[in-house]
Write a structure and sequence with these properties.
With 143 residues, the chain is α/β, with parallel strands linked by helices. The chain has three helices and seven strands, in the order βααβββαβββ. The protein has two domains: 66 residues, no CATH class; 58 residues, no CATH class. Helix content is 24%, strand content 24%. β2 and β3 form a beta hairpin.
Length: 143
């Protein structure tokens, strides 16, 4: 069986804003605007009002990670995510070194508008991780 590429899709209120947040979190990039448009704002201005900021994309510049697609939906988030991203910043680290690395990343993301939900400390079986929320309240982990 072959491994398939996949896209992760986020429902949100403001696709471009959320996409640009996740670009900062993951080191992803926004693709160039469509042909004939100098900027994404220029492209958005060319659309009918109901289509403006309806969707936005960002992707891993190396081509390794999944493409992220952000689509505008009318309803707000009301319950916990059924699927969430775990951002792997502490891979291979343990104890105080891992926790310090996770905390440093948590502080960086808070400056971008994320919220710290809770810190789960190592318990002898699992290593520490930090549960956070993005700029629209979607849960994710620093792992």
């Amino acid at each position: 069986m072959s491994i398939r590429k996949f896209q992760v899709t986020f429902d949100c209120a403001s696709p471009e804003r959320v996409a640009r947040f996740w670009c900062e979190v993951l080191g992803y990039v926004v693709p160039s605007p469509p042909a004939g448009h100098a900027t994404w704002d220029d492209y958005n201005d060319s659309l009918p009002p109901e289509k403006r900021d309806a969707g936005f994309v960002c992707s891993d510049p190396t081509g390794e990670g999944p493409r992220l697609y952000f689509q505008r939906v009318p309803e707000g988030k009301v319950v916990k995510n059924r699927v969430h991203l775990c951002v792997r910043v502490g891979t291979g680290l343990v104890g105080d070194e891992r926790l310090a690395t996770l905390q440093a990343e948590c502080d960086r993301l808070i400056a971008l508008g994320a919220e710290h939900e809770r810190t789960l400390l190592a318990d002898g079986e699992e290593e520490s991780c930090i549960v956070m929320r993005d700029i629209e309240g979607n849960e994710f982990c620093l792992d």
